[in-house]
Structures are given as C-alpha cells and as structure tokens.
Amino acid sequence: MAEKERVQKVLAAWGVASRRKAEELIAQGRVTVNGRPVKLGDGMVPGKDLLAVDGEPVAQVREKVYLALHKPRGFVTTLRDERDRKCVAQLVEDVPVRVYPVGRLDKDSEGLLLMTNDGEFANKVAHPKSHVAKTYRVTVRPQVNEEQLTRMSTGVVIDGRKTAPAKVRVLQQEQGRVVLEIVLYEGRNREIRKMCEALGLEVARLKRVAIGPVRLGMLQQGKHRELTKEEIRGLLAEAGKGKGGEQRDTDPSHGGQRKRAGTAGPGRRGRR
C-alpha cells in the first residue's frame, strides 16, 4: 500500500509553493484532495489522489527552475495582490513553468530576488535557521556616526527583540547622505528600515546586491537569469551550515542553464 505524504510537503515538492506558503494555502481552505478541503497535517498518496488549489488540479513538476530576478521598486513580492498592485509574477511571465519568490523584498526596495518552483530548495534557503547572508547597499540620511554603526553591527532592538549581529561599513559619504553596505544573517520583515528608523536615520534607497554566493551584478531591472549549478550548490551549502550542518541532497540539475558572471562585491572587512 502506497504511503501517504503530508499535503504541504507535496505542494512544495511539486513546485506549487514553498512549504510555509503551502501551509498558508491549506489554512485558507484553498487546497483540496479528491474534492475535499484538507487541514494542516492531512496526507495524500501522490499519483493516486487528486490534488487541487483554488479548484485547479495540480500536477507534479518535472523540470526545476532557479532564477535570479532584479526586482524594481514598486513591485510587491507575491504572485497576486488583492489591492491590484504590481507583482513580481508579471516579471516572469515568459518563464514556461510557474515560479514563486524565495523569501521577500519589500515594495519600496529593489535588487536581487530568487525565484523557483522547487519547494524544498526554497524552504532550505529561506528558512530562518539557515542564516544565508544577504548583502544590501543602503543610502541613508543625513549622516552616520560611529555609535550608530556600532549599534547596527551589534544589534538594535526592533519590535521588542534585538537584531542579530550584522556587518556594516561605509562605502561613500558626502554632505547629507551616506551609502552603507549591510550584510544580514536573518530575515526579519523590513529589518534594515526598522533598524535605521530606531537609530534616527532615513532610508533613501535600499538595494539587495547579493544572497549568499549569488550576486546581482549587471542584471538589469525587471530582468531575470538562470542560476548556475555552482550558485545553487553554494546556496544549499551556506543554508546547510546555518542549520548546523543538516543538509539533504537536492538535485540542482535543470535544463537550459547558462553561466553568467556577476560583479564581485567589495572585499574589505566590515565593522563588527
């Protein structure tokens, strides 16, 4: 007798959504198995039971796709929006399979966003315990002093909890504005903006330039490219280290890969 698998795991494995998003879909009553709504923890037999989301049958995805997207400001990191705002899904309409965001990047920010149809990959990279480094180029106003840099590096209390240590260094400084490079190892909502606000700084521009070994490079706004196998392996390796070395095998092979070199990031050490 075939073994049942949890529905949220199947949704992730079949490329419908990340594990966390799949749980949200189930909680919202949008997922059915054999025509009946399922609850969190319910199981199904892949290949035998009929799985559907919003009444649309779901089939197993054979080809895995991994993309780097340059998200412009003004786009929300979702596949659809009830307020009819511009969504990142509009930027990947030419991709032949359905892909969804790995993690998030708020509407007013720009830069590198990963997208995939591999739910297990998305779960590993975006999981809070993975601590995959995310590098940002942040323009703040008016000026930054040493005390603010030290507090940003060691941790700032936001939403009642202190942020994890970050790497911070000054890239450019002129009258009325400072450009910082900030490397975060956690993924709290609007973390940099809230840190700066707590320190009396205004964020004029926020751009994510790297996620782990994947760099934005010269990728134009609104455009996307395929990740190389080396980038995929590097992301999984970094996520595995963050989880204390726990890492399962994921096959990064997919069709039509092209290698494109990104622009190397700054090499100087940040303030701790």
UniProtKB/TrEMBL annotation:
Keywords linked to the UniProt accession: Isomerase, RNA-binding
Q: Where is the composition biased (Basic and acidic residues)?
A: 240-252
Q: Which InterPro entries match?
A: PsdUridine_s_RsuA/RluB/E/F_cat, PsdUridine_synth_cat_dom_sf, PsdUridine_synth_RsuA/RluA, PsdUridine_synth_RsuA/RluB/E/F, PsdUridine_synth_RsuA/RluB_CS, RsuA_PseudoU_synthase, S4_RNA-bd, S4_RNA-bd_sf
Output a single Gene Ontology CC term carried by this record.
Answer: cytosol
Please give the coiled-coil regions recorded for this protein: none
CDD domains in alphabetical order? PseudoU_synth_RsuA_like, S4
SMART domains from the UniProt entry:
S4
**Residue intervals of the RNA-binding S4 domain:** 5-63
Q: Name one GO biological process term.
A: enzyme-directed rRNA pseudouridine synthesis
The EC number(s) this enzyme carries: 5.4.99.-
Superkingdom as given in the UniProt entry = Bacteria
Chain positions covered by the region annotation Disordered: 234-272
Which terms does the record give in the GO molecular function aspect? Answer: RNA binding; rRNA pseudouridine synthase activity
The family line of this record is:
Belongs to the pseudouridine synthase RsuA family.
Query: What name is this protein filed under?
Result: Pseudouridine synthase
